[in-house]
Amino acid sequence: IGYVSYNVAPGWHIYKPLRDAFRLMIPEHYGPAVRVEMARELLVLMQQQSPDQGPYGDMLRGSPSRFAKLPSDYIFHEYMEDSNDPVTIRDFIDDAEKAGLVYLADSDLSYLLPENFGPEFARQIRERTSGDLVTIEQMIDVMTGRTFRSTLLVPKPQLGNINRGLSPKRIEGLHFQAGYGMTIERDGAKVTLSDSAGRTMSS
Known about the structure:
8 helices; globular
């Protein structure tokens, strides 16, 4: 199984103006640590002084608090290195197939099922995608503004062996890393997982 992580279009493009601003306004001859500190200072300036009252200004005003939570090496890698080319899941899978690989799943299971975003969301998605997996995931990306993916790929000869069905029996022998807010409740042999959004899975 191959594991590939990458920035996702169209969601990541909302941050492209910041990448452009950093690369335009911050001299490249400084070292990474200095450039990141200058980027943080530039964000505060743009937050305080931008006269724009539309989506662009909203993005600038919300950025300093978001960047305060990000490590400096991540900021430099995402916003200042030469190459950062977000791609849609559809184009990524097309390119993978040209290399003899096929899509298995995303490593973040919460994005695989539109039902995780509510019944009406799921109904609308499924009505508009005819059950096609890639189209479903592409539409989820568009609707949620997802910015990052970690995709699992397998060699094309394995296509006929793929079974994406989820059931307690199929996952009981696996190990999972829980996100913040995940709880586990046991009632005899029954185990129920719940997350901060109120979603549950029982075995």
